[in-house]
Amino acid sequence: MESLIVAINAVVPFLCYIAFGYTVKRLGVVEESFLQKLNKMVFRLFFPCMSFYNIYKADIGGVPSLKLLVFLAVGILATEGILLVVVPRIVKENPKRGVIIQAIFRSNFILFGMPLTVSVFGDRASSAAAMVITLVSSIYNITSVMILELFNGDEKTSAKKLAVGLVKNPILQGAFVGILFFVTQWKLPKCVVEPIAAFSNMTSPLALFILGGTMHFSAIGGNLKYLVPSLSVKLAALPAIMLAIGYLIGLRDLELFFMITIYATPVAAASYPMAQNMGGDGELAGQFVVISTVVSVITLFFWIFGLKQVGLI
User: Fold this and answer.
1) By three-state DSSP, how is residue 213 classified?
2) Cβ neighbours around 1 below 10 Å, total
């Protein structure tokens, strides 16, 4: 029961944001054209604040073991490399390729990782979780932009076009500035940090609200051939593989639990506005976010319950 409550408490707020957006749109309070413009604003203005702040606020003194950090970085990059080889051989449409790859490797770790970790291990684990979030979110942001640029439209992307797309991407701009401040330990005045933190906290709820208002649920049936196998890998197969490898290399307790928060949590909310604004299949990306969020109530419960039963956490 405790595991189920942890999973429900992590997921329900996200469903509320989506449901609110859907209801407001159905009532005619906002038009979809307005939500699409708002989506562009969130991508260009709010996401840079979030990517900057998540790195800026990290505690440099809470660094977990080097073995864990290396394993996380190598694991995510290796997963992406395998997907870059396999997915294009199966999926023919370029806009869908980038969205599917991102959906499988990119979890909503920023918003799920900390609450789940603290729920299971207490406040003592928050510093380690914050540092892991910094590493993982940095990799997610950089590689997601590269992958979406790589599969942007039907034409092949040149190295020059890819480089320009990376430099101009708002999320990476925020992340690079955040890394600069983190490495140098420069500190902004409190009166500046507080608004940035507020914008950062608004980003995911606003993105999910927009997703709910622009979601066309009738189109889900046509994408089931992509949704079912991709989410089966994302929520079941990939976490199992990473847990097994993590256990074999000696990760235990909190460090092993990070495999769940990174690989078994729902598809990142950021993947929807990114796909929508970077030439990907935004509709499919939104469906990945919504369905994975709903299904994860069940899958997270079984992961947490199962690990507790066998004494691994």
Assistant:
1) helix
2) 7
pLDDT digits (tens, 9 = 90+) for 227-273: 999 999 999 999 999 999 999 999 999 999 999 999 999 998 889 99
- Please say if the pLDDT value at position 9 is more than 80: no
CA–centroid distance for 217 within its chain? 22
List phi, psi (to 5°) of 27.
Answer: -80, -10
pLDDT band at 63 (very low <50, low <70, confident <90, very high): low
Closest CA to 101 of 74, 70, 135, 77: 77
Distance from chain centroid for Cα 24: 25
| pLDDT for 192 | 95
Q: Identify residue 116 by its one-letter amino acid code.
A: L
pTM: 0.85
What sections of 185-278 are H helices per DSSP? 190-214, 224-232, 238-248, 253-263, 271-277
The domain ranges of the chain are: 2-309
Give, in order, the Cα–Cα distances in Å from 238 to each of 78, 104, 229, 231, 277. 12, 8, 12, 10, 28
What is the per-residue DSSP string for 153-202?
SSSPPPHHHHHHHHHH-HHHHHHHHHHHHHHHT----HHHHHHHHHHHHH
pLDDT recorded at residue 158: 63
Maximum Cα–Cα distance for the chain, whole Å?
55
Q: Is 305 exposed, middle or buried (0-12, 13-18, 19+ CB in 10 A)?
A: middle
The CA–CA distances, whole Å, from 188 to 110, 118, 173, 191, 197 equal 22, 28, 17, 8, 12
Q: Give me the CATH code for the 2-309 domain, please.
A: 1.20.1530.20
pLDDT band at 156 (very low <50, low <70, confident <90, very high): low
